[in-house]
Amino acid sequence: MMILNRATWLTLVLVLGAAVLLAVLNLTTAQTAAYHVPTYAVALVGKYLCFAMLALALDLVWGFAGILSLGHAAFFALGGYAMGMYLMRQIGARGVYGNANLPDFMVFLGWHELPWYWHGFEWFGFAALMVMLVPGLLALVFGWLAFRSRVTGVYLSIITQALTYALLLAFFRNDMGFGGNNGMTDFKDILGFPVQAETTRCALLIITAMFLCAQFLIARWLVTSRFGKILVAVRDSEARTRFLGYRPESYKLVVWVLSAVMAGIGGALYVPQVGIINPSEFSPANSIEAVIWVAVGGRGTLSGAILGAILVNLGKTYFTSAIPSLWLYALGAIFIFVTLLLPRGIVGLFSRRERMVQTDAMPAVPKGAREAIG
Questions:
Q1: How many domains are contained in the chain?
Q2: Which of 106, 144, 203, 214 could form a disulfide with 102 if both were Cys (CB 3.0 to 4.6 A apart)?
């Protein structure tokens, strides 16, 4: 049975509590009130939480299995596209061209019938299954080939980056049937609820927070189990773990596929809150940003990944409006500062301080007792 420590409880309470509080302040207060939360802020926080799900998924493979992925945005984007296909099918005849069978971009490009891989996305259940299945299958095939060949280190990182860049180029093509450069947008409703309505946005925020907490608990349970201890052993010394009779590639494959599914769910929740999905989500820069989030928050801490994603994106939002011409330098300075002075991230700083307090509070052990202990 998993025991929840103070950091776990604090993370859960803060994530869920903040989401519920923002929703309540948005729906129950007058727009002129000083403590009213505007709808755009609700959507912005929802986006941050989706990014936190991507960071959590990355921390699971990088922090505990030693797999530095520079292409995790691919799984995030694939989940987003699966949800985007469902949302496009819900538009029906309300599109610009009034075609009930084809999305507007297909009509514009001269398509006459719906591609076979679009069938089924008119049902939410099928779309939800594809949100997990598509990233999971891609991760399974890629991971089986890579781990079976014992590709590790920087070589694996480069291959993951090549994967997401290849998908970026593929989804830019109009003949792929996913909207090309413009992607998918102009969504109307989800499960019959208007996407732009305040109640829907607040509901999406709370649902995103719940999924983030659920993923956090699953990841926490995994890394504290026997499986997680073997993962850490693989991260620290894969050759020694193999010598002891374990198959490191099997453990890495399982956590790799799980991480991809988690990222895909984050992408699916991201799309209805942002209102668009296009090939730019596959950009390798997005994957590198996710690595920065985890590094800033604290690699191998899980809660640090969530904290890093929220804080870095909050800083990005602030700097882009306060110093639009220098915001990249400001974020770069923060990353350099954390890397040099806080190598274990922000959460690592608090953990070290807590260990120091516990050490100072321990009673002194007599010299004879220390010798007896050995």
A1: 1
A2: 106
The count of other CB atoms within 10 Å of the CB of residue 170 is 12
- List own/partner pairs for 233-242 with CB under 8 A and 24 or more apart: 234/65, 234/66, 235/64, 235/65, 235/66, 236/66, 238/66, 238/152
- Which tokens is 121 given? 């996305």
Q: Splitting the chain (374 residues) into consecutive groups of 10 residues, what average pLDDT does each group show?
A: 76 95 95 92 96 97 94 97 96 90 91 94 96 97 94 93 95 92 93 94 97 97 94 92 91 97 98 96 93 92 94 89 82 79 80 48 44 40
In a domain, 360, yes or no: no
Q: Does the residue 203 lie in any domain?
A: yes
Taking residue 149's Cβ as centre, other Cβ atoms within 10 Å add up to: 12
3-state DSSP call for residue 277? strand
- Enter the pTM of the model: 0.91
d(CA 165, CA 70): 10
Is 236 domain-assigned?
yes
Count of Cβ atoms closer than 10 Å to residue 190 Cβ: 19
Alpha carbon distance 316, 310 (integer Å):
10
Q: Distance (Å, rounded) from C-alpha 179 to C-alpha 158?
A: 28
DSSP β-ladder status, 189-190 and 193-194: antiparallel
**Which residue range forms the structural domain that includes residue 125?**
6-292
What CA–CA distances, in Å, run from 118 to 192, 262, 277?
Answer: 20, 23, 16
Q: What percent of the chain is helix, strand and coil (3-state, nearest 5)?
A: 75, 0, 25
Which alpha helices (H) appear in 92-225, and where do they start and end? Answer: 104-108, 124-148, 153-172, 198-224
**Which tokens sit at 116?**
């076979």
How deeply is 201 buried, as exposed, middle or buried, from its count of CB atoms within 10 A (0-12, 13-18, 19+)?
A: buried
* pLDDT tens figures, 347-369: 877 765 545 434 444 444 444 43
Does 331 fall in a domain? no
